[in-house]
Amino acid sequence: MSRRWIKTNHLGLRYFEHDTRKHGKKKDRYYAIRFRLDGKLKEYGIGWLSDGIPDAIRKEDPNLGFEDYCLKRLREFKNNIKIGEGPQSPKEKRALADQERKRTEQERKQAERGNVTVHDYFKNIYYPDAKINKKEASYAHEETHFRLWIDPIVGKKPLKELTEFDARRIVKKLFDEKKTPRTAQYVMATLRQIWNKARREKIVSGDSPTINVKIPKFDNRRQRFLSHKEADLLLAALRAKDGTIYQMSLLSLHTGMRASEIFKLTWGCIDTGRGIITILDAKSGHGRAAFMTEQIKTMFARMKHGKNDDFVFLRKDKKPFTEMPTLFRDIITDLKFNENVSDTRQRVCFHTLRHTMASWHAEGGTDLYVLKELLGHGSITLTERYSHLSNGALQAATRGFEKKVKTAAKKAGQVVNFPK
Q1: What share of the chain is helix, strand, coil (3-state, %, to 5)?
Q2: Which domain, by its residues, includes 333?
Q3: CATH number of the CATH domain containing 146
Q4: Does pTM surpass 0.70?
Q5: Residue 163 in 3-state DSSP?
Q6: What DSSP state is assigned to residue 150?
Q7: Per-residue buried b or exposed e for 257-295, using 16+ beta carbons within 10 Å of the residue's own CB
Q8: I need a surface site. Which of 65, 131, 133, 148 has the fewest CB within 10 A?
Q9: pLDDT at position 302, please?
Q10: CA–CA dist 122, 155 (Å, integer)
């Protein structure tokens, strides 16, 4: 078979076509990724387009395209090389996965033969498997839920003996510690997933102990957004203290980008000519675009650009950010934005900048479906929280109500003065 490599629009990804075999109406394609490891150019085949994406990956993201899957693998290995952690090639990843599968299988068989406790099952079987098959943020949260709330209460109990009463004990502990219903929902979701995995492996049977545990609904969405004056005060204070934090804050305020998206932003994703920022690893799991204002274009133009894979924003020690520095919170405190505010929905944090951008858009009349795309929401339901800011009919109705009250009072010989 002839093998003439064809470049794609993505650096490090190319393919060749099968001489005769078709995939759909086009020739079948074989994709490969290329990157440097220890100064040497390495190339690894990903597979034929007709083979499709592995079931585990497809289940995690049903809408993932084959080229996006290849790019995801490429970025994974390049990032692991950069930080010096994790598998640095497909071969190494397969070897680690095989090793982990053998160990997990051995542990599973031992669990079936014995009376495995909740603690042992999570630590030896569930969590190692989650680290292979789930996103880092997902398995990290599950580990926290288990360590803080599940393990202290039921960790020593045999997994197969877990009951609804045990699940309710965990919820009671959460509420005794003044945790929100949303946190209780997350912890119950972790417990449910532990049980469901054990049931699939035939270690336990029956419904999850959480099935009848009802958690009160609670709206924990942030309500507070900044006025233009407050935003100016915040940006000025940040600029005087730290230029990098100021730039990240300005970027979030003007584009609505999340902190995690800003931390992972590389120079290859910045296109000042078209005014577009490509967000490769959005929270929804799908890539999206953010659009620059003129102020953001100017900001990037004045910055020293690095290579395509270099992070745009780095800490003073030249490492990528993983969380917003405490300086941001210190300045919020200095400005007294959160003074005497205990409700987390009304407290200002870095995410408030994204919420502020969306609120200003809504107030300015931006269509909610347009706003949905700007924010990268997976569902319009998430964007509808801003509908009260964009609904001119509601505001007009309020003004009409006020007018009728004044008219009725005037007819009755009363004087009504509304406070200004």
Answers
A1: 55, 10, 35
A2: 228-392
A3: 1.10.150.130
A4: no
A5: coil
A6: I
A7: bbbbbbbbbbbbbbeeeeeebebbebebeeebbbebeee
A8: 65
A9: 93
A10: 9
